[in-house]
Amino acid sequence: MFTTSPNIRQLTFRRSRTAIGVCTFVATIASSTIAASTIAPSTLGAQQVVRQIDSVLVKESEGTYLSRIGTMAVGPKGDVFVSDLAEGRILQIASTGSIVGSFARKGNGPGELSSPSATTFVGDSLFVFDYSQKRISVFQVGTRKFIRSFTANFPPFTQISAVGSELIAQITELKTFTSVTVLSPSGPIVRTEGVTPEFVRNNPKFIETTNQSALTIRGTDAWSASEYSQSLYKWKRGTTSVEQELKLPVVSRRGVDEALFLRILRNPNDQALAVQFYNHSFRWHYDSLRQTFSLSSRWI
């Protein structure tokens, strides 16, 4: 299923059934394959099943190619729009695998992108979050022309999505103890909603090192999961109260000693343990980077 040609990438579609039960697309990259999963409705507690449904070779050229992939979104007519963090652009890929066009170019000016890390659609408009510039740029899909931009002072790699005419940003806000920020397509924040576990309210340092989260919305129901919690949380759209909590059988976190994490779970209000966790996790990220890039002592 993988290709070794430097000028061809493979776009693979897989169907997945999960406990949450929504239809969406999830992008990952492994070797030279871009994988997109469509999540079909299921029932709570169902086992996840992934099945390939289609694949297409992406035809690259010297000037138009996939470099450092950020996210991908499916447009209103079925084309796939892939953000390229390295080149500062969005590539539009047809169902045949042909790259039919690109949006923007590398830079900091109007209509230019520096680090396009999240994309979504509202109608025929493409919204791109650039975490380096702290702004969202809007492009018209048919013409690929820049329309406007507005400030979005979000954390790096914040994911955005669209529900109806609203933009949804996955942001844990400790001032309001919410996990979602809702914006209008023109930029102003409409409201915050969602829930933040009490464990995080009492130990906000966790957000600084374990802030990855996932969100899915189906009708008036919203579900979220986070690195810093052992539960899935469900709430009604527009509210900040937990309607349902599903505890997951997970007792360890990447790079964090299991014994330390269990101690924190048993003593969620112990600030000394929270600081110890923060220091431990930060060191793990640093050690991981040092091993990955084989940094010598002169770089440290």
Written description of the protein model:
- Among the domains are: 1-59, no CATH class; 67-157, Thrombin, subunit H.
- The protein is mainly beta and 300 residues long.
- The protein has 4 helices and 20 strands.
- Strand 10 (125-130) and strand 11 form a beta hairpin.
- The chain is globular, with a radius of gyration of 20 Å.
- The strands form 5 sheets. The chain has a 4-stranded mixed sheet, with no helix packed on it. Strands 5-6-7-8 form a 4-stranded antiparallel sheet, with no helix packed on it.
Oligomer: single chain
Widest beta sheet: strand line-up? 2-3-1-4
Number-wise, the strands total 20
Helix content class: 10-25%
Q: What topology does this entry show?
A:
Blueprint: E1 8-17, E2 25-30, E3 33-40, E4 49-59, E5 69-74, E6 80-84, E7 89-93, E8 99-103, E9 116-122, E10 125-130, E11 135-140, E12 145-151, E13 160-163, E14 166-173, E15 178-183, E16 189-193, H1 198-202, H2 206-209, E17 213-218, E18 221-226, E19 231-236, E20 244-247, H3 258-266, H4 271-293
